[in-house]
Amino acid sequence: MLAEKIKTLLSCVVAALSVSACSTPCGSPGALCAPIETVTSPPPRVTAPPERKPPPPPEESAQVETFAVAMPGTVPEGQDAAAVPGQTVRIGLMLPLRSEALGRAADAVRAGFMAAWERDRAGFEVTVVETGDAAGEILSTYQSTLAQQDIIVGPLARSAVTALAASPAVTKPTIALNHPEDRDGTALPPQMLSIGLSIEDEARQVAEWAAREHPGANVMILSGSAAWQDRIAKAFAAHASQVGMATKTLELTALNGYLSDGEMVALRARLAEQPVDLLFAALDADQARQLRVALSAPPLGDIPVYGTSSLNSGRVSLYQGAELDGVKLLDLPWQIQRDSPTVASYPQPAPRDEERLTADMERLYALGIDAFRVAREIALRPGQPIALDGVTGQLSIDFGNGPARMKRVEPTAIYRNGVPVPVTAPLTTP
């Protein structure tokens, strides 16, 4: 026993000369004393093990729903695109707002378009794309806009519409705001629809109206020398012959917009010698008023007079005499049916300055309203016929089934108490 105790004591003395790490006191049962490093060795570099992050939870699959914009031919027949939840149709409104010549007209269209969008904006996003009036710039802008938009509304200038119609760029629904320069000789791409206001279309509709009321009539067409007046006169003459009326045209001289007194005297004499059944006035409102004054004496004052919307100067005119009473014309519902539910549902345009809006600017504002409504209908009911009670007329549209077609029927009106009113309206006194 003594020998074992001495042996153990010697072991502890030897261990004391070294640095030891023990989990239990030396000499205790089960002690695991063992030297780690001598005091002359440098301390070990202890590196903490990298913190192990807990494994991420299983990642859920992302739920992404993509709704293709319903364009002609992409929605099964009979399915309303509006029934697809979450759909947003992107419309690019491309207008020559930077153009010195067309900027004011473009602004009127923009204002009407945005007013209609504000009323029915759900599911539609509108981006206004500004351009100048150069055809080349408009073409390049159109091509760059296609990638971001689903429907393009524009351009506005006839030359730009002509250039775009002749290019291969039209691959998405495009609603042109004017007609090409050679309308009869220019075939529009299948994805292009023109909804521009047309004085030629008005003249043809007036010819049909006059032929219904005066079958086989002998008509004298009175025109000024302006280019637009020549276009109206020629369109009426060509269609009048197709509906059984005989025509002859007399171009009147206008100095600063006023007809020559001498020519008015000569016209009276000619009509007295060569009576006609009716007159078609390819004139403006002031010239038509002069004509009526010159022909006021019976029997010339009894000759029916027809015309287009050019005979209505709108609310900008502060002169409302009885000289034009009885004159028949066409114009947009926006101008002559202001109390109709459709027209009354949209705000009236506000002028940009102190001047009152001209009738032409108001008509362009109305065109902007119908442009959005047509784009909306094309998106919601692709490939289906569209019948729209528009503020520019009754619109019948076929889009997405071959060449696009649109017909606009404008309401007929008659001057009463100095104001054009729908022909069906009862006679009232001021």
From TrEMBL:
<dbReference type="InterPro" id="IPR007443">
    <property type="entry name" value="LpoA"/>
</dbReference>
<feature type="signal peptide">
    <location>
        <begin position="1"/>
        <end position="23"/>
    </location>
</feature>
<protein>
    <submittedName>
        <fullName>LppC family lipoprotein</fullName>
    </submittedName>
</protein>
<keyword id="KW-0449">Lipoprotein</keyword>
<feature type="region of interest" description="Disordered">
    <location>
        <begin position="41"/>
        <end position="61"/>
    </location>
</feature>
<keyword id="KW-0472">Membrane</keyword>
<keyword id="KW-0732">Signal</keyword>
<dbReference type="InterPro" id="IPR028082">
    <property type="entry name" value="Peripla_BP_I"/>
</dbReference>
<dbReference type="Pfam" id="PF04348">
    <property type="entry name" value="LppC"/>
</dbReference>
